[in-house]
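Progress narrative, work stream C.
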Amino acid sequence: MKAFRVAVFSGVAGVLALGIGYMAFADAPAGPVSPIYGVGLPEGYRDWPLVAPAQEAAPLDELRVVVANPTALKAYRENTRPFPDGSVLVKLAWKHEQSPDFVPASVPGAATTVQVMVKDSKRYADNGGWGYGRFINGQPADEAQHQTCFACHSSRVKDRDYVFTRYAQ
């Protein structure tokens, strides 16, 4: 009987190990990743719920939206700070253009960047728990652009878990 329990336990442990290994592999970015942080574009991010829109003034002159995965959105809605590990925020940005159909309105022009923040307090312990990615036309921006991410967030919004965007309710 004892040998049977050991065999069952070993089998369950093996299945769990395979499952955990699969989940880690499945969560790994499928495409290009950012230098320094190794952050990729998350699958399906364009279908994520809106956190907030923004309009960036000159010189960038951009329209922006921030979307969140379910973990980050729940933290926003429940005002949980710091954000829990597994939170992912994505900012999409386009050049700001006047609408050709309705003069007072703005419309997105050419896409400029997609920026990603991933919360993993162990992996990114030296950066407030966040990893960053900046992508232009689906490709990571250069290392110099990524070196500015944490410095900017830590100097301006450290007290809000390094997150600029506030939830638009």
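Work stream C, second folded protein:
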Amino acid sequence: MLKPYEIKLATVKEEVKQIGFSVIEALEICLKALNDRKIEDLSNVEISEKKTLHKSNEIDNIIVGTMALYAPEAKDLRRLVSFLKITNELARTAANTKDFAKMFKKSYSSDLDTNVILEYAIPLLKSALLSLQTATSIIDEKDEKHIEEKYHRVIVEESKTDDLYLMIEKNILKLISKKLDLSKEYFDILSSLRRLEKIADRAVSIARLLQFAQVGGDIEQS
């Protein structure tokens, strides 16, 4: 029979996974819109920053209550502390996803060099998505070797997003120098893509926290 705090921990895990799935689903909608060149479909991204924050606060309350009422064993306490931090990371990720969809759709137009933009935006979005998918998959992972492998995969994808963002930034600056009248639109596109890079950063933090939850050690500052 499960101990009361173990039941609470299982509830927390499921609730955290649901937030992760909702963000991943939103990013998949974004990727399909870009792949299909149907940028207007970005309006189908319905993830709510307010609802996600509310849900993360609910989870935090369960965690704090569990730690206060029960005496979780060391490993379970470590997991609860990790999830307390992960909810904040997921709330930020949801906000960045919503911002990307809204900003990219608003700024994108046929006046811009869309081929150059999509050449880098699509792989950037793919890497951000894969980094979050891999990070959240660690929640159910028990094998320490697999946890380490997934953690390093997230780091690799995050590194890709850094490189891709630098490349598109360089190319967009070149485009701006040729068409100064479109500088605001290009800068807004760049700002939206920056949100994808931040999503990958958050994925690394989530993976690191889940690694700590399962393996132990120290929580590194993100």
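The CA atoms of residues 77 and 105 lie 43 Å apart. No further action is required on this item.
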